[in-house]
Automatic annotation (TrEMBL):
Record-given protein name: N-acetyltransferase domain-containing protein
Subunit structure comment from the entry: Homohexamer; trimer of dimers.
Gene Ontology terms describing biological process: aminoglycoside antibiotic catabolic process
Positions annotated to bind acetyl-CoA: I95, G96, V97, R103, R104, G105, V106, L107, T108, S131, E132
Species whose genome carries this gene: Amycolatopsis camponoti
Amino acid sequence: MPGTGTDGRIGGMTDFDVRPVTEDERRGTLDLLGRSLHTNRISDESWARYGDSWPAAHKFGAFDGTTPIGIASSFDTDIAVPGGAVLPLGAVDGIGVRADRTRRGVLTAMMAVQLEDFVARGIPLAALHASEPTIYGRFGYGSAALGKTVWLPRPAARLHDRVPAAGDVRMLTPQEALAEIPGLYRRIGLHRAGMIGRPAEWWPIAHDRLAGPTGSHVVAVHSGPDGDDGFVVYDTVDRRTLESPDEGAVLKVRELHAADPVARAALWRFLLSIDLVSGVRARYRPVDEPLAAMLADHRHARTADVEDDLWLRPVDVAAALAARAYRAADPVVLAVTDRQLPANTGHYEVTPDGTHRTDAAADLALDADTLGMLYLGQWSATALAEAGRIEVRTPGAAARADELFTTVTAPWCGTHF
Ligand SMILES: CC(=O)SCCNC(=O)CCNC(=O)[C@H](O)C(C)(C)COP(=O)(O)OP(=O)(O)OC[C@H]1O[C@@H](n2cnc3c(N)ncnc32)[C@H](O)[C@@H]1OP(=O)(O)O
């Protein structure tokens, strides 16, 4: 069976075996993950509520005897790529190594087994959100979609009069949200490269934040001429104190999804209309969301941060390159080097009509993680060459690659996992 029997023995200090997690080991490995991320031990009550979202499938643990010392988890879903195709995705949603066993190769062994498993199951792309940006490049993951944090102060920030906005916004009870939002997310669809499907096991934790005992999230839905077409999930942090009783609350947007610009504008207009709020903060928004242009005074859309959001790993380079669309331009030959999955190492010709392996000389040379950065269109080949990540072997080839790979819309994931 792929993924079993990887032994680790580093300097005689650590002995471990990487193998699939069994049913009985689910809770122990979730606890281990929680400890590594410095969250609380999972209570019986929480386990009863969302233990189902931690199935044994697609989890590999590093074990010292029967004791888990590392966990690498993923779930199967799909991802939209430039041009609109949707590809199977291994969504890596939980990585952790026990604090007394770090820096001895446990993660390295688990990542090798997880990648072999993706290969064996024919999954062409893997993705994750990184706790630290220095960890995953060595395993072939590249920062593929950025997200911006915006701050809109109230009451100063308001939409200008020509922003198209129609329809109604209504708030849902937690029970209505649980029933309606998964279907609405599906109907809105994966309309940007980088968006992923949300399988059944993704929802329970989100549900817990809505309807669980500590649930603080609020959901509002937009309805247009064809029915519900957008939703926002937010919560608030009260900043009123005795010293400043009028400070108001900060409204934190957890997610905002809309099928079209009208629904999106109406949801922003709604958020900016809520009383006793000193400002609206949203993290991981698409970098090209035109909030500044939507405001009467565009300086009130303050971009507080732009950070790495989705990291992408081409697992099957030929399949991944063949699946996305390219713009009209002269072909370019890429020399890809993949240290973890050497079968990917080779030359690929990219043309507007498709891609194929070739023996032709390469115009540009790059590693698998850099291909992950280039793939969704977030970074230009020119920028990656200037940053020393792409070696230009044929003068002018980076500009040609830019013409082929550029996308009009920035990639965006919009789902935390
Ligand atoms: C997708 C997600 O779930 S993101 C969440 C990731 N988890 C966490 O951040 C929880 C806290 N951290 C941990 O559990 C561990 O430190 C891990 C999982 C990040 C790393 O596990 P380890 O077993 O220590 O990694 P391993 O020993 O295989 O290290 C491999 C290489 O990566 C480097 N590395 C590992 N972690 C880090 C880090 N946090 N920062 C910088 N370099 C790192 C190591 O130095 C090593 O480099 P080398 O090959 O040049 O010697």
